[in-house]
Amino acid sequence: MNRRITKDIHVGTVGLGSNHPIAIQTMWSEPMPSKTDAQGFERLLTALRTYATMGCSIIRFSYPTSDDKEIFTRICAESPMPVVADIHFDWKLAMEALECGANKIRINPGNIGAKWKVEEVVRAAADRGAAIRIGLNGGSLPLKLRDGDHAVGMVDTALEYLQWFESWNFTNTVISLKDTDVEVTYRAYRAIASLMDYPLHLGVTEAGGVISAVARSTWVLGRLLADGIGDTMRISITDDREHEIAAAREIMRTVGLETNGIRVVSCPRCGRASFDSQAFLKRIQHRLMQIDAPLTVAIMGCQVNGPGEAAHADIAITGIGNRVYLYEKGILVREVTADSAEDVLFARLEELSHAQ
Ligand code: SF4
Questions:
Q1: Regarding beta strands 56-62 and 263-266, do their DSSP bridges make them parallel or antiparallel, or are they unpaired?
Q2: Whole-structure pTM value
């Protein structure tokens, strides 16, 4: 598939645009730990390392108050991936986040206030080599555009802000246009993709829990990605961040843009099931998401149809009672107890990962 040709921009060590892989992002879901909460800080770093292992390459934090300055500076210094600060309304917080070392800020210039304040922020980002995402939402368009077609309103507004940025010689910019209406979001991205060559950050805003968010995001992002549109993406889900990353990867895998990471194949189970594949998959899912190798793992409910249906899988697993069977490319290679199945599976996955 041909990607839309874009400018090359950089967010710390990560490049965005058609010369680079599509970068997966997520957003920290809690307030930052207090500056005296050493354990909270360690937990945060551990989580970021896990996200990185899963294929996430950019992390965003809300930066709502100057109280976070010290801890945010430490996060920027120690994060395993480039850090973005999400800023609303207060241009001074944008300046401060850049001082802390943010590699990118996300702003809606329309809610930063006077144009000169936006200019100050843009010039500070240029001085520090940071990127800026112009992040527009249909719901926060200028009042005069809110009653019209949000797709048109977002595109026109983004193009106007881009002109501002370019008049200040700033081009390290990425654009997002999100609306709660998925068709509006799709039309907005399609339209702007043909009107300028900056990289696009894809996402559907306020998408809901796992089922609704994945369905809505796949409908919009799957079509855009298949059209070669999109350079970075966040699947917004009201749930664990690991699900956001895994969903982004799965959407990319489905449209043929991603080969790394475990592809899980599992049967829905039926009356023939002799193995609790649902409970087993639930138990191991988080561990599977942290393996970066391009392997297919099948978790099947019975030996009658399971092995045949999963013959293409690198490893397939099924069982009867306390006995669990491991197949590789359709051939039975091991029989183990149910208690040891998880350890045996992951040991073998580790070997296969290293052999890649
Ligand atoms: S693999 Fe077995 S348990 Fe799973 S759906 Fe097919 S027949 Fe049913």
A1: unpaired
A2: 0.91
